[in-house]
Amino acid sequence: MPAFKFFISIFIVLAGCAISLRAEQGIAVIDPGKGIQNVSFNVQIATRSSAVFACNNFDKETWSLIGKSSIDFGISSKTKLYKLKLVNFGVENLCLELDKSIIDVINFCIPDSNGNYRYFLTGDSYPSHSKPVPHQNFLFPTGIKSGDTATVFFSVKCSDPLQFSVNAGSHEDFVRKESVVNIFFGSFYGLMFVMILLNLFIYASLRDKSYMHYVLYGLTMIPGFLYLNGYAQRYIWPDLPEINSFAGIFFCAPGVFAITFAYNFLHLKSYSPSSKRIYIGLISAYLITIALNLTGINKPVPYLINVITLIGSGVVIYSGILTYRKGYSPAFYYLTGWGLFIVCIFVFLFKSFGLFPNNLFTENALQTGSALETILFSIALVSRISFYKKEKERAQEETIRLLNEKKEIIKKQNIILEEKVSSRARELQNLNKDLESAIHDLHKTQDQLIHSQKLISLGQFSSGVAHEIQNPLNFVKNFSELSVDLISELLQSPDEESRKIAVQLAENMNAIINHGNRADQVVKSLLYQSKPSNNLRELADINKICRQMALVAYKNMQLKFPEFICNHNDELDSGIPEVSIVIPDMGRVFLNVFNNALYACLQRIKTQANGYQPSISYRSLVADNLVTIVISDNGTGIPSESIPKIFEMFYTTKAPGEGTGLGLYVCHDIMKAHGGHIKITSNHGYETFVEISLPSI
Question: Is 306 inside a domain boundary?
Answer without folding.
Answer: yes
